[in-house]
Amino acid sequence: MLIKGARVLTFNDHETAYPEGDILVEGDRIKAVGPRLQRPPGARVIEGRGRLVMPGLVNAHMHSDETLFRGLLDNMPLEVWMLYSLPPIGYGPVPERLIYLRTLLGAIEALQSGTTTIQDDISEAPRATLDGSEAVLRAYRDVGIRASIACNMTDRAYHEKLPYVAELLPDLEMDAIRATPAQPAAELLALAETLLDRWHGRDGRIRIALSASAPQRCTDDLILALDDLSRRWKTPLLSHVLETKTQVVTGQEFYGKTIVAHLADLGVLSDRMTIAHGIWLTEGDVALLAAARTAIAHNPISNLKLGSGLLRLEAVRRAGVPLCLGTDGSSSNDTFNMFEVMKCAALIHKITSPVSNTWSSARDVLAMVLRGGARSVLLQGQMGVLAPGALADVVLLRLDAPAFVPLHDPVNHLVYCESGRDVDMVLVGGKVVVEGGRVTTINTGAIYAEVADLMPGFLQMMDRAYAASRRLEPVLWQVYERCQRQMPEMNRFATLPSEWEWSKGSP
Predict the structure, then answer these.
(1) CATH number of the domain bearing residue 422
(2) Cα(338)–Cα(160) distance, rounded to whole angstroms?
(3) CB-side exposure of 179: number of CA atoms within 13 Å?
(4) Is residue 360 situated within a structural domain?
(5) Looking at the domain assignment, is residue 330 inside a domain?
(6) If we measure between CA atoms, which residue out of 18, 28, 26, 27 comes closest to residue 48?
(7) What residues have CB less than 8 Å from 229, skipping those under 6 apart?
(8) Is residue 60 part of a domain?
(9) For 179-202, what is each residue's pLDDT tens digit?
(10) pLDDT tier at 177 (50, 70, 90 boundaries)?
């Protein structure tokens, strides 16, 4: 396959760009990039005139299991929001067919907005299963996206994951919580090994990662065992770390230290690990992550929607902590569109300091998505760049569109002007999966129609789960406010604690 005559941004070490360049693809790899390449006999030619060509985007942190909840929730902090995005009582099991379909919905949106690789941290209720996990994997295989998939694993019961919950819950609700016991670590580890054996490396596009949901949601033994699997299989280890002020307090209550310090004591911080969020890191935490080369998956839109706070992005960058970007789930974002994430990441941190030469630029943000994303899925050097030998994950965007007319610096246009609507063609591993702006590998209309048909039954199940969540909600608001009031000297919000109007109370 030869892409001919396009405006090519390689994003290589020298930021080489070709006003009229060609890309030769052979199998699943790029063979050559440059002007006036020869067409091999029988090769398909893709006309690149009027197109901007770039590497496929990498979404380093997402949750496809939230796809059916998009547009549903608002004005809830993480700990309350989770009652409705992953209800602890009465939720699941979701039928395998619906798991398959909801995964396709997210993948369609990702591909059509230029994302070629996703790292999906999937949760399944009331417990992780092989059938449910394989429904996700089949969906990604069928749609043609590159995917790094982890089962979000936790072996602690709900009331053991947060401080103060056990003491505040009424006896009746505690009985209901105890009726859904935690999944044993041995069962979770057996599932992980089975998925690694069956799926890791399948079709050259599917990879299995590992996820300790969050340290406070897991026993130390589970975290250590997942780290050992990650080391043996050379695959990513994921975890949610210090997303909220509540988790700062949780670290002190559970471990007597920060959660990052606890992970360091366990010896699991490494360059295989990516932590999601990292908003409430201390200076010491940042130093530990930098020393271990542990990455942070920054999710700026989700952090804003859930009111979690602002990551100290520039401080983290200066310390040398690797960074990548993610959408997070489609109930806390509520899309899988990485162009939106890039624009938000490039803008929001400019208001944290008046020193403009410390601000992240459009190029910095694209580097987080491309190189940082490749590093997070442990494919650094093989993706996120258009270069000979790299995987042929390629995006073509129309230049005859408002986002690019008139055209100045294409990188700035990609981050500040483009929304994903001008994506025309997408290749994953050298195969065309989007053409004319639409996924070509599956019948998207049929998928949308089938989801609509199945939603009434799903919503009936959710009504029962939400009735239980509404009974738990007042307790979670108490936990939230109690944690927010502690350690006022530590703040990641845009206003000072003295300005917060707690007198109005929580909902």
Answers:
(1) 2.30.40.10
(2) 34
(3) 11
(4) no
(5) no
(6) 18
(7) 189, 192, 193, 196, 210, 235
(8) no
(9) 888 999 999 999 999 999 999 999
(10) confident
Q: Does 506 have pLDDT greater than 70?
A: no
pTM of the model: 0.97
Structural domain contains residue 424: yes
Cα–Cα distances (Å) from 118 to 13, 205, 206, 299, 332, in that order, read: 23, 11, 10, 14, 17
CB 170 within 8 A of CB 177: no
- When divided into structural domains, the chain yields a total of 1
**437: CB partners within 8 A, 6+ apart:** 112, 421, 423, 424
Rounded CA-CA distance 259/248 in Å is 7
Lowest mean pLDDT, pick from 171-180, 236-245, 395-404, 448-457: 171-180
What pLDDT, on the 0 to 100 scale, is given for residue 170?
85
Q: What residue ranges in 56-201 does DSSP mark as E strands?
A: 57-62, 115-122, 146-153
Sequential DSSP letters for 345-363: HHHHGGGS-S-GGGSPPHH
pLDDT tens per residue across span 56-74: 999 999 999 999 999 999 9
Q: Encoding tokens for residue 264?
A: 């360091």
What distance in Å separates the CA atoms of residue 307 and residue 209, rounded to the nearest whole number?
28
Using the CB atoms, write b or e for 70-105: b if 16+ within 10 Å.
beebeebbbbbbbbbbbbbbbbbebeeebbbbbbbb
User: Could you tell me the residue range of the domain that residue 431 belongs to?
Assistant: 2-54+389-439
HSE at residue 353, side-chain half, CA atoms within 13 A, is 12
The C-alpha atoms of residue 136 and residue 436 are separated, in whole angstroms, by 26
